[in-house]
Specification:
The chain is of the alpha/beta class. The chain is built from 16 helices and ten strands. The protein has helices at 2-5, 10-21, 34-38, 58-71, 86-98, 110-121, 136-145, 157-167, 191-200, 223-226, 256-265, 267-270, 277-292, 294-313, 334-346, 376-397; strands at 103-107, 127-131, 148-152, 174-179, 204-208, 236-240, 250-254, 326-332, 352-354, 364-369. It has a seven-stranded mixed sheet, sandwiched between helices. A three-stranded antiparallel sheet has the order 8-10-9, covered by helices on one side. Helix 4 packs antiparallel against helix 13.
Length: 399
């Protein structure tokens, strides 16, 4: 069989060892649960990052529908060839304005945006220093680039400074990469401190806003608004269209010369089909709705705070979460985490575990995504059932 011929990757071997060590089989994973396939979205859905409840908004659907009728479902070419559409320029201008940058560039994939951008900006002889909890796409981009990778302790500017002092002078260029709102922990870095270190050591700063746009700041503009920073001071902003903007794809916002360089040298852009018109139009409409209806952002943030405080009141560990769009429930033990997730799925709750290789084996958690349309009752009921599930599965987890 083909599955017997495909070589196992190191991450696959790690997962299999952890499953065996904890008395679990692949069929025990919640990702293969029948409950997951039958689970309907709605007030029991806490695994969707449609933060502002925009993916079925009438204006978003209308914009996508009109673009579909006019341009079809595919650009049918790279944007460097025949795949450039007016929708690309319209959306990119909006995104550049949000981040106070001269220009922006839209990619067909958020993951490919990070991979391609980092690989196009640095190379052998350069240094990239990334936050310990940076997303896989960031790590893969550095690996592909050939630059040296160093890791600083999570949200620790002092740790970053030590690395810069020790290593920066040995390399031509230095790129510092972090996330504006960390996808696994729901916390944020001190961007003021990172900018100061960037300036002191003649580096670039790149901030991944995949989970920041639409979630952080009074108007949902992201981490720069949350922290009162002029977004134009950050060298490179990365983001996705698949979270708050209810579409698919990714983007970079930066100075014009950086964007022009990426158009020619970012392989995930130049060697890929252009993002289709319906996705561009949907994201553009979603961004407009977000800016015209700030009450959606306010509702999301209020729900996040309520979930975090309710969970803490029930004695649950939410880690370092800010209580915005992402609230982890730290269970730490792998077996207990999977059993709890399966129990919740059987009750109709869409709640999934985060485990190695995504996080360390002693930092397993259930990750909850909050939306603006969640009700207080649904949040209260989730925490109640979650607490019961944790107690119910704890005995079995100990075997």
């Amino acid at each position: 069989m083909l599955s017997q011929e495909v070589p196992q990757l190191a991450s696959q071997r790690l997962v299999e060892r952890l499953l065996r060590r904890n008395g679990l089989k692949a069929s025990d994973l919640p990702f293969f649960s029948k409950a997951e396939r039958d689970n309907a979205p709605g007030q029991k859905q806490f695994s969707s990052y449609d933060y502002l409840d925009l993916k079925t908004h009438p204006l978003v659907l209308q914009a996508a529908s009109e673009a579909l009728k006019e341009y079809g479902l595919s650009t049918s070419a790279s944007r460097l060839m025949a795949g450039e559409l007016p929708h690309h320029a319209w959306l990119e201008a909006q995104l550049a304005e949000v981040y106070g940058q001269e220009s922006a560039l839209v990619f067909v994939s958020g993951h490919a945006t990070n991979v391609s951008t980092i690989a196009a900006l640095v190379e052998h002889g350069d240094l990239v220093i990334v936050d310990q909890y940076s997303h896989n796409s960031i790590q893969m981009g550095v690996k592909l680039s050939g630059a040296r990778r160093l890791v600083f302790p999570h949200n620790d500017p002092a740790g970053l400074e030590r690395l810069l002092v020790k290593h920066r002078r040995q390399y031509r260029r230095c790129l510092i990469v972090t996330e504006g709102h960390f996808s696994m922990d729901g916390d944020s870095p001190d961007i003021h401190s990172l900018l100061m270190l960037r300036d002191q050591h003649q580096a670039w700063l790149m901030v991944d806003e995949a989970h920041g746009l639409g979630v952080l700041g009074a108007g949902g503009l992201g981490s720069h608004q949350q922290q009162g920073i002029d977004p134009g001071r950050v060298d490179i902003w990365m983001g996705t269209l698949s979270k708050s903007l209810a579409s698919t794809g990714g983007f970079i916002a930066a100075k014009q010369d950086v964007i022009q360089h990426l158009r020619l040298h970012a392989s995930g852009f130049s060697f890929s089909v252009g993002l289709n018109a319906p996705c561009c139009a949907a994201a553009s409409a979603a961004l407009a709705v977000m800016r015209n209806e700030p009450e959606r952002v306010a509702a999301l943030q209020a729900n996040g705070k309520y979930l975090m405080e309710t969970a803490q009141g029930a004695g649950l560990d939410v880690g370092e979460s800010l209580g915005m769009g992402i609230v982890p429930i730290m269970l730490n033990d792998l077996r207990h985490t999977f059993l709890t997730a399966n129990h919740l799925l059987s009750q109709g709750w869409s709640v999934y575990p985060i485990a190695p290789p995504t996080v360390p084996s002693n930092r397993c958690r259930l990750r909850l995504f909050v939306r603006s349309d969640h009700t207080r009752d649904s949040i209260h009921n989730l925490v109640s059932d979650l607490s019961s599930a944790i107690r119910h599965t704890k005995t079995n987890a100990g075997r």
